[in-house]
């Protein structure tokens, strides 16, 4: 038996039928996908819990134009054939995947159409805040800056930026060899120890001396485009989540 709080109210998840009181057993229905609020349903692992919410979403295509979903103290589940119903507590009980919107933004591998536009604006030298405002449907400048910082910290945006900048760098003669060579000259010939140390540290970052199997290509073009440290990313996440509870604009 487990208890989870939703809006400060505790709700019980019974791990098996033997734990369920007799008065509740009468409320258990066979098919959780047909449940209503107040019904008790059985998860795929045999756990029993109460349905706290029921929602519906419209669809523009397909035979069933309306799809329902149920919510419990562990998560939200679509009422469709083949859907899984786990009793494991999700991080975000109000989303189908159990993640917060910002997690989807950080974890996604491919650029969305709006992110492609965002990257194209960035590659022209446009400030990230302005690029976000032009690419996404928002006029909130504070949110746009925070969202832009989050996006530019992701590997997919860094990779896309590098591809966008490749022709420009090639035209200017800025190659990885040129960048590395210039930093090496600074490390070898700089008069000030501080300058030499910074150059050596930059070389160390680029070559990733702790992991010699990979070269950080995005670091090589770092003079043009830089990511953000973990601390900067965390500092950005906090106001972003406060300003937009629903997460970043997507699309």
Structural account:
The chain has 251 residues and is of the alpha+beta class. The protein has three domains: 2-99, no CATH class; 102-161 and 226-243, no CATH class; 175-220, no CATH class. Helices cover 43% and strands 12% of the residues. The chain contains ten helices and seven strands. It has helices at 22-25, 101-107, 113-123, 128-135, 141-152, 155-172, 176-189, 193-207, 217-220, 230-243; strands spanning 2-6, 9-13, 40-42, 48-50, 53-58, 66-71, 76-78. A three-stranded antiparallel sheet has the order 5-6-7, with no helix packed on it. Strands 1-2 form a two-stranded antiparallel ribbon. Strand 1 and strand 2 form a beta hairpin. Helix 3 packs antiparallel against helix 4 (128-135), helix 4 (128-135) crosses helix 5 (141-152) and helix 5 (141-152) runs antiparallel to helix 10. The longest helix is centred in the middle third of the chain and has 18 residues, at 155-172. The two termini are 40 Å apart. Residues 209-228 and 242-247 have low confidence and may be disordered.
